[in-house]
Every structure is written in structure tokens, then in C-alpha cells.
Amino acid sequence: MNKRQQLLILAAATTLVLAGCGKTETTEVTKVPVKEGSAALLTSLDQLKGQLDTNKVKDPQKQSTLLENQWASFEDEVKPKFPELYFKVEKFLTPLEAGLKQDKLDYATLTALNNNLKAAITELSTSLADNKGAVNKDVITASKELKEAAIAYNKYVQEQGKQLVAGLEQLDAAVKSGDLKKAQESYGQSRMPYERIEPIIEAFSELDGVMDARVDDFKNEKDPEFTGYHRIEYLLFVKKNVKEAEAFSSRLLEDGKKMQQAIASTTIEPSDFIAGVGELMEEAQSKKITGEEERWSGATIPVIRANVEGAQAIYDLVKGELKKKDAALDEKISKSLATVIETMNTLSPVGAAWNDFSKIEQAKQIDLKNKLEAFAEPLVKMPGTLSK
Hints:
single chain, 388 residues, 2 domains, 18 helices, disordered N terminus, Imelysin_sf, Imelysin-like, Imelysin-like domain-containing protein, EfeM/EfeO_iron_uptake
């Protein structure tokens, strides 16, 4: 496949991602060893290829969910050890899942994505078998400079935890004041600390699920179990009902305080905080960019900006060491970061207000996704480079 064909496929894949994955049914996924999980996923990809070759896929939505669940069964083991390969898998898997959920299937694009995904999973399987290419946690842990960076990052996370509570207090006060515009602005502002340290927050899955779950995980918008940020988002931006948001705002503030306490009791090790860059950028460029998470508020660019800021905080702390080991990689990260920031600031202002992402033309959404990906690609090389 030549470079032009690759670019055309990736452009089509980006369009599929931006189209969104649609509603999925939440299922409990049984965790399995990487070797077992990757073998099962390869089998499914081979079976899907046979169907794509005949331009007839049986129950494509079910196939999409199968691939999603198989990857979820072992992806957490891949993230810290093989961040580059994790990024590569997500790069092809996310649009493949989205494409299988479209009303009309684009067989040529899906076939190319399936082939590329199979190559990425095969590369992962080979790396595991040869015990080659994994991040060397011992090297990172032994580094005096990276230990100091981890101490600084712990302080950053604690500060974000405090800002989270302060933002939720402001949101709660705005909701209780009855001022819709102020409440909407406070909603957007309160999201920022949460998104900057998302990989840390996700470690507390029960609280994270209560605070940040989307409506897709529930029966509908009125499900009593549907609480947190996105229930408030729905009430403020769709129903425009400040009064009804009061109880959910109070609950979110209490949960935010619990999250802040949980964060305060956590010590993040050097290898763990460095691995967080990949998770933040994967969130931004493949999931947040669809606009689904902030579907009612349109605050997609602010939450992506917060993910980028969180990744930048990690990069800034290790940049000196990275430059010693690979100056060219450091320069590439620095330049692509500046490009992403400039693009985001052009599309939506920094501050309390934002431009609704759904009203930004798709060509500009695609351009932002491409620039986020161009930033993420060198960034996920950082953990491996620092561990050499």
C-alpha cells in the first residue's frame, strides 16, 4: 500500500470516528492474559476479513461489540508496557468499530482498517513472544531525575484535585443561584481539572463511573442511576432546567470531595505517570474528538484542551531527560504540541465560553483530529525512549 492510499484510508477512517460509535450496551468484560486475548482477537479479525471480502457482514454491530470487548479484555496490560503499539491498535480499532455501526458499510475502508489492525495485533503478539520493545520500568524507576519529576507530578495531581472541588463548588453555587448561563459556564470550567488528570481518576473506577458516566451506560436520560456531570449537562443544555439540576449538583460535589480525598492518598510512581501521556492523548484524539462525550454542551474542545494540558504537564517534567536521550523526538513533540494548541485556540477561545463543536465544520474537526494524532504519535514513544 503506497502513502497516498494510506492517507486516503486514514481520512476515511477519521470521518467514521467523527460519525461516532452510536449507543452500545454495557457489558462486563472478563480480563484475560494478553497472549490469550490477542489470539482471540486475531481469530475474530480473520473471520471478519472473510465476510468483508464477500461484501456481506453478518450483524456488523454485534461484530463491532465483539472486537471492542475482546480488546477491553487485555488492553490494560498493553497500555503501560507497549504504549506505541497500544496507540497503533486504537488508531485502527476505533474507526473499525465505528464503521461497523454505520447504516451503510464502507467495505473498502473497513477491509483496510481490518488488515491494518491485524498487522498491529500481530506485531504486539510478536513483541510479547520475543519479550522485545516493552517499556523498561526498572530503568525509569532507577532514574534520579525521573523520580524528582514524579514527585513534581504528584504535586500537580494534588493541585488538580483541589481545583476539581473548587470548580464543583462553583458549579453547585451557580446551579442553586438559578442563573442558567452562569451554571452552563461553570459546568465547562469544572470539567477541566477532571480531564487533565483523567488516567489517575480512572483508577478509582467506581467514583469515576458515578461522576462521569455517559447516558449510553443507562436506560435513558431519566434513569435514576444516571447522575454526575452528564446528567447535569443534559439538564442545563437540553432541558435548561436549573432547578432540577440542584440535587445532581449537590451529589456531584460530594463525590468530587471523595475523589479529591482518594487522589490525596495516592502516590504515583515514575513509570505510571509517564505512561499517562498515551492514555490522555488516546482519549483526546480517538474518543473525545467524536463529540459524543459533550454531545449536549458542545464543550468538546475545552475537554480535549484539558487532556492536552495534562499530557503537556507530564512532557514538561521529563523534557530535559528526553532531550538527552532523543533530541529529535523532543523537537517533534514540542512542534506538534504548539500546532495542536494553536489549532484548538483558533477553533474555540480559552476561558469560560466555548464554540459548540457540533457547529464547527467537519473539515476543521478532521484537521484537529489529524493534528492531535500527529502530536500523540511521537508522544507515545516517550516512555520507551526514557526507559532505554
